[in-house]
Amino acid sequence: MKAVGKVKKWLRGRPPRGKWTLLRRSLQLFILIMFSIQLFTGGVLFNGSLASSRPIDIVLNQTIALPGMEVNEIYIPMLDPIAFLEMLAATHYATIESLTAVLVVVALYSVLGRFFCGWVCPMDLLFSIFEKKLNLPNQPRHSTFHTPTKAEKAVPIIALIAYVLLSWALGYPFYTTISPTSNASKLGSAVLGVIANVPGAAAGTALAYGAFVVFALIVNVVAEKVFGIKRAWCRFVCPIGALYGFVMNKYDPFKIKINDVSRCTKCRLCSMVCPMGIDVMGDYVLKNKDVTDYRCFRCGRCVEVCPTNVISLGFRLKRTK
Ligand code: SF4
Ligand code: SF4
């Protein structure tokens, strides 16, 4: 049977290439490439990093006079909420532009939930590659899917508070500086700048960006190899996804939908393949409610393996339960 063959491949360490996996890998790569070539596109398409960016940045030939302001550049400002909180703590003020930029991002992920971690963040792509290269199991073992304890849920919240306090004490945005997500999106551009001898590009800067990315990779590999903890950085250290997960995953209309429970064969494949350790079958399918778990980053793996199409990924405005 086609579905069984796919799952066998998965269990051998080669995930099936369902449409959701292909789509999100394409989007992750596209965003990474756009940030990497920004030096050569003049930043018109993508400008900045995943912490603070301006997708579509067009400098106008002439200045347009609007009531109370003159406009000579059009762009979409985007600012990660963690970067905003840390900057607020470090500098004690916010500009209209930073407020607008963070509201754009909050509005986007109010619709898409924790989508950022599975579809945008380049670290998910890198973690997956390294998991395969190092021959780590790329699905949690049967015992690792579980309902999170209060302590487990508290760790990323405590980390977030600690980062904001550290930013306040140090006077610069602490996590944003060390974030592998932000550094990975700057790394390609820094390396290409050194190769192309672009003025201002320095090998030391590229090495520093790379060091933060490698550090997060090492943390994840050691946590999984030594302690059996899957994606430790994403679940316990990085506050970006935690914020989207705890706040947006409860209400966003883009979700993992549970459709017809009567078709469920209780094979539990959906829980076994979840990279974030969610017991999809036990906590959601059998309770006939859409997945609102803060850990779910809408990767669609559970959808791809379900042999009877009980689960789907898409929009549903109304909450099931
Ligand atoms: S519940 Fe499904 S979509 Fe959410 S993280 Fe797990 S496998 Fe991915
Ligand atoms: S929802 Fe699908 S994958 Fe999950 S236990 Fe039921 S039949 Fe199996």
Automatic annotation (TrEMBL):
The chain crosses the membrane at residues 27-46, 101-130, 151-170, 190-223. It comes from the Archaea. One of its GO terms (molecular function) is 4 iron, 4 sulfur cluster binding. Pfam families: Fer4_10 (PF13237), Fer4_5 (PF12801). Gene3D superfamilies: 3.30.70.20. The keyword Metal-binding applies. Residues 254-284, 288-316 form the 4Fe-4S ferredoxin-type domain. One of its GO terms (cellular component) is plasma membrane. InterPro entries: 4Fe4S_Fe-S-bd, 4Fe4S_Fe_S_CS, Electron_Trans/Redox. Keywords: 4Fe-4S, Electron transport, Iron, Iron-sulfur, Membrane, Metal-binding, Transmembrane, Transmembrane helix, Transport. The keyword Protease does not apply. PANTHER family: FERREDOXIN-TYPE PROTEIN NAPH. This is Putative nitrate reductase, subunit H. It comes from Ignicoccus hospitalis (strain KIN4/I / DSM 18386 / JCM 14125).
